[in-house]
Amino acid sequence: MWNTKAWDDVRMFFPDNNNRSRVLLTTRELDVANYVDSSSTYHQMHLLNKYESWSLLHQKVFGKDDCPPELEKIGRSIASDCGGLPLAIHVICGLLSEAKGRRGSWEHVANDVKAAIAEKDKQFSNILSLSYNHLPYLLKPCFLYMGAFPEDHEIRASKLIRIWVAEGFLKSKGDKILEEIAEET
């Protein structure tokens, strides 16, 4: 939950019938948590420290394998720049996995992360935009089509594939039907 208005919009669907129902709410905004119910206790998650951040990045990119020595310093810097946010680290790991251990690519990602965190109020959305910026140009229109759906809306893969086929985002390959190509992609 990002703001108090979102809670007001959702709350109307929860009647107060004294039946002891509970709602689990997650937010990074302390003012939203207090607005929802200042008398309730809440669990505040901690940010990852630099060691936990590096451990998560290392595990997501390399699994049980060792990190090549020429990438470790860059990797630790990237992990630290993610500000202890596990989701940000996960997003960046996707980019690093695509870089396939090339030092120059890792340095490029590191520079992008540093630029993304420069604006504190837009830090997280800037990090997410990095994953879009690093998509192959053929996939960018497919990703942008997600904006046609309401936030938190469940999107059926079959529906999305039909839309992409209709838009011409998928090209024929031999005698395979376009839906099969989408499933492989």
TrEMBL record:
Task: Tell me which InterPro entries the record gives.
Answer: Apaf_helical, Disease_R_plants, NB-ARC, P-loop_NTPase, WH-like_DNA-bd_sf, WHD_DRP
Question: Which molecular-function annotations from GO does this UniProt entry contain?
Answer: ADP binding
Query: SUPFAM superfamilies from the entry?
Result: P-loop containing nucleoside triphosphate hydrolases
Q: Which UniProt keywords apply?
A: ATP-binding, Cytoplasm, Leucine-rich repeat, Nucleotide-binding, Plant defense, Repeat
Q: Which residues form the NB-ARC domain?
A: 2-66
Q: Which Pfam families match?
A: NB-ARC, WHD_DRP
Annotated GO biological processes are: defense response to other organism
Name of the protein in question:
Late blight resistance proteinR1A-10
Give the Disease resistance protein winged helix domain ranges: 149-184
Cell compartments where the protein resides: Cytoplasm
